[in-house]
Amino acid sequence: MDFSFSEEQRLLRESVRTLMDRHAPPDMVARHDRERLYPYELHKAWAEAGLIALPFSEKHGGLGGSVIDMAIVAEEIAYTNADFFMAYAGNVFCGLNIERKGTEEQKAEFLPRLITGDLRMAICISEADAGSDVGAMRTVARKDGDVWRVNGHKLWCTGAGAKNTLLNVYLKTDTTVHHSKGMSLFLIDNDAPGVDMRKLDMLGRGATGTYEIRFDEVAVTPDRIVGGVNGGWDCILAGLQVERITSAAGNCGAARAVVDLAANYARERKQFGRPIGSNQAIAHMLADMRTEVEAARMLMWRAAWKVAQGEEALADISMAKLYSSETYVKVANMGMQIFGAYGYSMEFPMQRHYRDARSATIAAGSSQMLRNLIARSMGLKVQ
């Protein structure tokens, strides 16, 4: 097992770090968080640098990057801001599903615009009574002549309200069969007639935004159905591995940033005439934080390596996503303690990590669902 990076991958990491330092300095990050502004200029910079094109095949205008390349990018973007990482990842995950399951006409229509940054995409799965239980969704589409009519309600849709966004909506096209047989993936413009959107007031990650969406008789033509009618379940499954590895990488990047912020503060902050980092209690907290983050990174890199080798990695991916998300929450809490009242102040970045981290154990597979998957991989019949 070789965890070393190629020279191209080392240059990729450096270039992403440089891009983020230039286009997302601390004052920009703080302003977008405070004012809940979508990072349009940063999104364009990602596109111009080829970061959105990275995972797509050269045939469709991409760069043919690997899952390891994706993890490198995710870690570096999230090091600056976990919220901005959500803006990046949502676009890529949806686009990859179109590349895997879409028609050639869909690929030709949407992927070039996505790659150039002129189009954004957002995934819409969850509902009021359908979170981890995807089969409980009630949003439906019915055939009406030459079009389908969509009615329903979606929640927790990340980035759905950004300009020029194509909603990737999972819904039921056949309610008489099991959800794996009667679900479809529809592509709906976020400004289409009948689409009503509301930005939700969430604890964190307000720049990319989390939305509630209602669909009232929204007309969708057959050419906007990915994977065919009732082929939505295959679309969900097709993207899970890359999504969760990349999410784990984002958690690791954000957690690394927490450790660096806390360590720098502990070296500079003086109490009783000496840096607080010279106190064993603080030093040991930081040592534990760094150790747990590096352990999370090793789980993540092992999972990414196995996928890149074409090996079965569901359990590895689940463990990486579980541990990285819970580690981000844990170190953000410890970082707040080290910063003391300064961490509680909105003028300092630790409070943002504390808020943003809390969603990491919920999104892209909750900790409880991931533990079920891990237990099942051990031969346990978990209900």
From TrEMBL:
Record GO terms (molecular function): acyl-CoA dehydrogenase activity; flavin adenine dinucleotide binding
Coiled-coil boundaries: none
Keyword tags: FAD, Flavoprotein, Oxidoreductase
Source taxon at top rank: Bacteria
Residue intervals of the Acyl-CoA dehydrogenase/oxidase N-terminal domain: 6-118
Cofactor(s) recorded in Swiss-Prot or TrEMBL: FAD
Domain (Acyl-CoA oxidase/dehydrogenase middle) ranges: 122-218
Domain Acyl-CoA dehydrogenase/oxidase C-terminal: 230-378
Family: Belongs to the acyl-CoA dehydrogenase family.
Identification of the protein by name: Acyl-CoA/acyl-ACP dehydrogenase
